[in-house]
Amino acid sequence: MSVTREKVLRYRMHAQQLDRPVSSRRRPDDAAILDHGVQDTGPDGALWALVVRGVPVSARDWPHEFALAWTLRGAPHAYRRSDLTAVEKALRPYSETDAAKRVINASASLAAADIPVLDALATVARTMHEVVDEPMAKGALSTRMTAELPEPYLRWCEGCGATHMYEMTFRLAALHAGLELEPGTSPPVVRRIPRWPAGQVGVLDRPADGDDGPLDVLRSLLHLLGPLTRKQAAVYLDSTLRDVSARWPDDAVEVDVDGMPAEILEGDLSALQDPPDDPLVRLLGPYDLFLQGRDRELMVPQKAHHKALWPTIGRPGAVLADGEVVGTWRPRAKGATLALGLDEWVPWSSRTRKAVEVEHERLAAFRGATPG
Description:
By secondary structure, the protein is of the alpha+beta class. It is 35% helix and 20% strand. The radius of gyration is 21 Å and the shape is globular.
C-alpha cells in the first residue's frame, strides 16, 4: 500500500482527534492521546493539548480524573488516574540494555560499580517511596535521596555546584515508586499516589509471556504517530532498536510513504488510505504530540524551518492548517491581555487568518485572558 505524506498527516490529525469540536458534554478524560500520555511542558502544556482535541478543560484547573508523572524521556506526562498502575507496568524497561539507554550517562557509573541498571532503578524507587511520606519539593527530595544512596548513584553537578543523583534515574524511578507530580507546581512537588499497590513499588520485572497489559506504548505510538519505522520508535522512547523490534506488534504492516518504508497497525490501514479531509486550523503547543514524531522531514519538508520549529531552547507553538504546519506562534502576555507573535511561513489565505483569530480567542479564554 502506498500513501502520500499529505494522507499521513491527515491520518494523524484524525487519529489524534484534532478534528473534534469542543463539547461541554464530553468527559475530561475522553481523549485518545491519554492512552499514550500527554506531555505537560510549557505554560499551556497538556491541558491545551486536550482543548485543541475537543476536551472542555481550562488552564490551571486540573480535573481529578488526571494524574501527572515523569515518564517518557523523563518528561512530565498527563494520564487518566485510573490508568496509572497499567501505565507503570507498560513503562518498565524492556531489558537491561534498554534501561541503560534510558538513564543515559548514569549507566556508566552503575556499570563501573557492577550494579545492573534495572536493580538500580528498583532500589531508587523503593527508597523514594519511603522518603516521600508527604508532598515534597523536588529539591528537598533530591537532597534526601543524595543522603540515602551510595556513590555510584550520585554525580557532581557543575551547574548546581553540588553532588546529587543522576537526573534521569531520579525521574524515571518516580512512577515505579508510586509517586506523581502535583500539577501547577514549580519547582515540581512530588507526592504519593493514593492507594498505590504496595506490591508494585520498585518492581521492574516484565511478564515472561510478553503481555504488557491493557496499555502498550508501541501500539499507541503506531496508532497516533504512524506510519513510522522501528528506528523512529526507538529514538522516540530513548530505547534500542533491538528491544523495540523484539516488542514490535505482530499486526504491524509495512506501507510505502512517498517511496520510504514505514509501518502501521493493520487495523488503521483503511483510515490511512482515506483520512478525513475537513479544513481546520489549530494552534498546537510546542510539545504537542503531533509535533513529536521523529520523521521531521515528513512533517516539515523545508529543512530551513526545522530550527525555527524545533530549536534546542525556547520552542514556539505551531500553526497547523489542514494538516500542514504553515507557521509558528508565541504568546505575548501583558497583564490580562494575551497577544500572539506569528511567523507565517507561507502566505495565509483569508480563511486561515480568520481561523487563527478564532483559535487565538480560544487560547485566551483557556488562559482566562482577553485576546489582544
